[in-house]
Design a protein that fits this description.
Elements (H helix, E strand, L loop, with lengths): L20 H41 L5 H10 L1 H13 L3 E7 L1 E17 L2 E4 L5 E6 L6 E2 L4 E5 L2 H36 L5 H34 L1 E3 L4 E3 L9 E2 L8 E4 L4 E8 L3 H9 L5 E5 L6 E10 L9 E8 L11 E18 L4 E3 L2 E7 L5 E5 L1 E6 L2 E6 L6 E5 L10 E5 L3 H39 L1 H11 L1
Keywords: Cell inner membrane, Cell membrane, Membrane, Transmembrane, Transmembrane helix, Transport
GO cellular component, one term: efflux pump complex
Subcellular location: Cell membrane
């Protein structure tokens, strides 16, 4: 039986050296150095962070502190004093903007969307056929009614006039001869020289010639009228559009486009729609004979284009929209209004005299309806239910709930509740400035604290780098030992 030889393990020629006491001591020293550095950095960060928050709390608490809170803060001192000042300011009166309800006149307007429509638009056409020889206008020109615009070739119509004049002269001569013969026949009949039948026949011939002469006169008048139609004039006054035909073309009375389109712009009308619920109030003013002023504004309601008066109201309601159309007229002196232009119309329906008026900002709406915050003499607020009336600009008339002279809150309403203590100031007054200063100070303190924390972080990073730098040197020293 064969036995496997046991492998021989080579032993190191020299034993592994044991750790020296100096090496163990160097490891402990490095650990203590790291621990000390961490403690120092934590302490420095805590101090810097505490100072930044103390400054922020003190700045935020200043605008809201009363005199007692400020003195309490001075007694407390340090961080605790700053925090106590902030809490005391939060419990003090809130600065709010207020306004006094006053008696005044407020206008009641009805507004609606509409478009500009000209009072008259005419397609200038030739009433006879002919070649266009002359144009006496420029595109976009403003002309008066009867102004000469174009001329057609008049020669064919001059010839027709001449022919009609010749025919009239011929028939007139025949009539005159027949009248002379009739006069002679009547003389002979009186002498009993001819039969009466011959006189009657001659009298009928005279009547026939008289009819012919009248017909010829009509033909002559028609020819002269056709000749005048060769000169095209403006049927209405207004502004001319773009030319529809050029010189040299033959125009016809049946042409659809005509020569040019003329639109009356002064005065001009605006057609707009209002809800059918406003019809009774509008009709009441119309029946009373009042002229209702109407302003025309642009699409964005930023610029007033013109002012005028209501002309009429339509005789039926549009069942699909529930609105009725109104037409207003304005002079349009500056040509600010243009046909088919989209505009906003605002009609002054009535003026409410001696109404109780407050700013729109004071009116709030909740589950129980419309209300305002009224400031009582003890500088506390109470919720008052009101009935709002018409609005004009930034003011609203109050039908019920507010008396003249009462003070309502218009700024800082979101912080209020029933019975809250307030410090009333006018809009833009000292309290508003103080509130703005407090916000700016608080923001600055917060930014300063943030900057301190960033500086602390930078210092901590620098300290850690400084503390960590000797570590490799210590390790190298221990290894060399």
């Amino acid at each position: 039986m064969t036995t496997t030889p046991t492998p021989k393990i080579d032993q190191p020629s020299q034993p592994r050296p044991a750790l020296l006491p100096n090496q163990r001591q160097g490891g402990f020293q490095r650990g203590w150095l790291w621990l000390a550095a961490v403690v120092v950095l934590a302490l420095a960060a805590y101090l810097i962070w505490g100072r930044g928050h103390q400054a922020a709390d003190g700045a935020a608490g200043k605008p809201e502190q009363t005199g007692q809170a400020a003195s309490g803060s001075g007694k407390g001192g340090g961080k605790g004093g700053g925090k106590r000042g902030a809490f005391a300011g939060a419990g003090g009166p809130l600065p709010v903007g207020v306004a006094v309800a006053k008696a005044g006149d407020i206008n009641i307007y009805i507004a609606g969307l509409g478009s500009v429509t000209p009072e008259a638009t005419a397609v200038v056409k030739s009433r006879v056929d002919g070649q266009l020889m002359k144009l006496h206008f420029q595109e976009g020109q403003v002309v008066k009614a009867g102004a000469l615009l174009a001329e057609l070739d008049p020669r064919p119509y001059q010839v027709a006039v001449t022919q009609a004049e010749g025919q009239l002269a011929k028939d007139t001569a025949l009539l005159q001869a027949a009248q002379i013969d009739l006069k002679r026949y009547r003389t002979l009949l009186a002498q009993d020289s001819i039969a009466s039948q011959q006189v009657d026949t001659q009298a009928a011939l005279v009547k026939q010639y008289e009819g012919t002469v009248k017909s010829d006169q009509g033909s002559l008048d028609s020819a002269r009228l056709q000749l005048t139609y060769s000169r095209v004039t403006a049927p209405i006054g207004g502004r001319l559009g773009l030319r529809q035909v050029d010189l040299g073309n033959v125009v016809h009375a049946s042409d659809t486009n005509g020569i040019v389109i003329i639109t009356q712009l002064q005065p001009i009308t605006t057609v707009f729609s209002i809800p059918e619920d406003n019809i009774p109030s509008v009709m009441k003013q119309i029946q009373a004979g009042k002229k209702l002023p109407t302003d025309v504004w642009d699409r964005d309601q930023k610029n007033k284009l013109d002012s005028g008066y209501l002309l009429t109201i339509d005789n039926q309601v549009d069942s699909t929209t529930g609105t009725v159309k109104l037409k207003a007229e304005s002079p349009n002196a500056n040509y600010a209004l243009f046909p088919s232009q989209f505009v906003n119309a605002r009609m002054l329906l009535d003026t409410r005299k001696d109404a109780i008026v407050i700013p729109n900002a004071a009116i709030q709406r909740g589950a129980k309806g419309t209300f305002v915050y009224v400031v009582k003499p003890d500088h506390t607020v109470t919720i008052r239910q009101v009935t709002a009336g018409p609005t004009e600009g930034e003011s609203t008339a109050i039908d019920k709930g507010i008396a003249t002279g009462e003070t309502v809150v218009i700024d800082g309403i979101d912080k209020l509740k029933e019975g809250a203590k307030v410090e009333p100031v006018s809009r833009g007054g000292p309290a508003a400035a103080a509130a703005g200063s407090a916000d700016a100070t608080g923001a600055g303190a917060h930014k300063g604290g943030h900057r301190h924390r960033q500086d602390a972080s930078s210092s901590a990073a620098a300290s850690s780098d400084t503390a960590a730098a000797p570590a490799p040197a210590a390790a190298n020293k221990s290894n060399s030992q």
